[in-house]
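Troubleshooting log. The previous structure file for this entry was overwritten by mistake, so regenerating from the original sequence record. Sequence copied from the archived sheet and checked twice against the printout by T.R.
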Amino acid sequence: MAGSDHAAAPASVRRKGASPFVTILALLLVVLFAGLGTWQVYRLQWKLDLIARVEARVHAAPAAPPGPARWAGIDAAGDEYRRLELHGTYLYDLTTPVQALTEQGSGYWLLTPMCTTDGQVVIVNRGFIPAVLGARTRYDARRAAGDPCAAAAAEAPARVVGLLRISEPRGSFARDNVPADNRWYSRDVAAIAATRGLGAGAATVAPYFVDAEANQNPAGSPDRPTGGLTVVRFPNSHLVYALTWYALALMVAGAWWYVARGRGRRDD
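Regenerated output below.
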């Protein structure tokens, strides 16, 4: 019996502490999870900065729309949700109804080209109308005859204040636009301009559109859509993600310590 006890002792000594494989795996996981948590902290700071910049734009005094010299450099990070003021005349006959889902239910955005006083064409989202009004039955896929702004001079002048929005080339509702059938699921400025012939003559079309604020439709405008429904909201769960990754790192470290300590005690 004594001989067997002495023979077992060296094996017991060899088993003290966590195995090298477990230690290396735990270290890698701790580094990975801690790194992901730190990345989420950086993302949190970026998101807070983005929200602050957008809030400043939304509540700023309206500015003149950016002209052709700036169009190539317009992007979401630097320009979206800037508050603009437009002056010109609407081309109501060339309105494009785009399927929409808002807090007021399903329906259509009415995107109408505006010939501005400086000779450009800016597509304006005049607002939302419910689906029961059947916008697609009243706005067909007609095109401009010649220079669209040449005929706009007879229209009543309009002023609109709204937010600059970036074109949406991909269809929403998991569907693509069908311009030939006048079925639109996204506010694709380039496609709408091409379908309506807005680039004819001397007209140049801005690559962005403008979401009109509430009560911006002039007297006599058709449909009287509801404006001011732009949703300016940015999901911000980065703090929760960061805490989750840091918690996982601590859990792995704690599990490694428990295993190492437990095996040491068992060997003792």
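The chain has two domains: 2-50+236-267, 82-212. Archived copy saved in two places this time.
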